[in-house]
Amino acid sequence: LLSGSVLNLALHPHAVRPGEYEYGYGWVISNVGDDTLVWHNGNWLGYNAFVGRLLRRGANIIMLSNAGLDGQGIDLTASLGFPVANELIRTLPTRAEPVPMAGRIAS
Asked: How far apart are CA 82 and CA 71, in angstroms?
């Protein structure tokens, strides 16, 4: 769906909050353990979503919830997204090269 150059732009940090996270075009880029987690989240009227990919492991994390009410529900990012990412890092092997989200990432 996206060319390698467009995907590369989305995954390259354009905004940085030192000590917190980096942000590409639409994706938050976080160092988690020895991997890079590229993720995005959101909520609306009690629905919550978290989607992420561990680039060195090629693992995807997709979570959806309708358990909230007016923003008072599960924080999928903090409560589940990062803990699941840490568990995947602990249990899955790394790959020599990062695994792109789709197609290939141009260098």
From this structure: 19
Torsion of CA 31, 32, 36, 38, to 10 degrees: -90
* Token representation of residue 13: 């940090």
Paired strand residues for 44: 47
User: How far, in Å, are 22, 28, 64, 75, 97 from residue 25 at the CA level?
Assistant: 10, 8, 22, 22, 22
Please provide the size of the chain in residues: 107
| 27-67 pLDDT tens trace | 899 888 999 999 999 888 778 889 999 999 989 999 988 87
| Cα 93 to Cα 77: distance, rounded to the nearest angstrom | 23
Rounded Cα distance between 79 and 2, Å, is 31
| Cα–Cα distance for residue pair 18/57, rounded to 1 Å | 25
Mean pLDDT of the chain: 80
